[in-house]
Amino acid sequence: MPQIFSNDAISRALLLVILGAGVFFFIGFLVPVLAALIICFASWPLYRHLLNYCRTNSTLAATVAIVAIVLGLVIPLAMVFSYAMDEIRAWIEWLKHANEHGAAVPDWLRALPGVGETLATYWQTYLAEPHQLGQVVSLVSGEQISGISKWVLNFGWTTAGLMLTLLFMLITLFFLYKDGERIAWQLDTVGERILPDRWNRFSRVVPATVSSTVIGMTIIAIGEGVVLGVAYWIAGVPSPVAFGVLTGFMALIPGGAPLSFTLISIYLVGTGDLTAGVGLFLWGSIELFIVDKTIRPTLVGGPVKLPFLPTFFGLIGGVQTMGMVGLFVGPVLMALLVAIWREWLRAPQHEAYPLTEQVKTKQS
């Protein structure tokens, strides 16, 4: 009886089935694995120094690196987010009270030059009258304001899933540090078989892009949030921690940080504190100039030239698919896609214009 399927076809089909099953069972770990890969790429040069300091003991070096990340990054960020959520809960309670009883137009809003009367009219329409705010929230989001406030007030219940994701990320990151060189060698072996002509360039572009994006966007955004948050506290801005966190998130978007401290400066001027408003604006402008002209080029070797639209899609898509972790993973993935696309376009001359080369050869 003739054989219908060859052994190679059966092997390939079985391999595809196994790969599909692996993806199906491990799809839930995609977010922590991606986050661990991004942190590993960005911190690998520092880890190499730590590994040499630990006399090439990869287990000890990986343990020290994880402890340093937990103590220096995870715990401080968790404390900041916890304090910010307490301030945001106070905002929600004020909005609920304004929705039930109305809130009078504040004098500082009406006193804003140029736009004060217009903003006061909107405030009178949607906040001064009871239950008007709830109708607007329901129209925009499809949710009642009470439902949104319950989600914010019960945010602690959702932190369990975030902590579990963080735990898986740290475990993955430990083994990436410990076995990183062996994993890189295996990836190079497979990559050269799949893309023999381009893998060498891709293997250099990917780590450089991840490091530049993480340092140029994420780390600097966190730093701007901290620096401007301190400035908000000094200037006497209400809820400085929450505004500092929001400024850090806005700093991920081009132009987001200056928009944040400019609006808060206008608020301070409107409330009658001219000195604090002008001082905050000068503080933010000087900090932004120093970051863009000195710190970012020194750390990254130049600005991360990621267009606005991929950055925006990376942020929004990352939040929708990965939650809070997606705020940092999304832009990095979009930067990788843009870098790979640009690298693919940089084909050699004889590959990009084969017909032109043939014509020149015939003419000569």
What is the overall pLDDT average? 77
- What percentage of the residues does DSSP assign to strands (E)? under 5%
Termini separation: 59 Å
**Into which percent range does the helicity of residues fall?**
over 70%
Order of helices and strands: HHHHHHHHHHHHHHHHH
Task: Tell me what you see in this structure.
By secondary structure, this protein is mostly helical. The protein has a domain at 11-82 and 158-194. The protein has 17 helices and no strands. The protein has helices at residues 7-26, 30-53, 58-101, 107-110, 116-126, 132-141, 145-153, 155-178, 180-194, 199-235, 240-250, 256-270, 274-300, 308-322, 326-345, 349-352, 354-363. Helix 2 (30-53) crosses helix 10, helix 3 packs antiparallel against helix 7 and helix 10 (199-235) runs parallel beside helix 12 (256-270). The longest helix has 44 residues, at 58-101. The radius of gyration is 26 Å and the shape is elongated.
List its salient traits.
364 residues, mainly alpha, 82% helix, disordered C terminus, elongated, 17 helices
Quick description:
By secondary structure, the chain is mostly helical. The chain contains 17 helices and no strands.
List the SSEs and their pairings.
Blueprint: H1 7-26, H2 30-53, H3 58-101, H4 107-110, H5 116-126, H6 132-141, H7 145-153, H8 155-178, H9 180-194, H10 199-235, H11 240-250, H12 256-270, H13 274-300, H14 308-322, H15 326-345, H16 349-352, H17 354-363
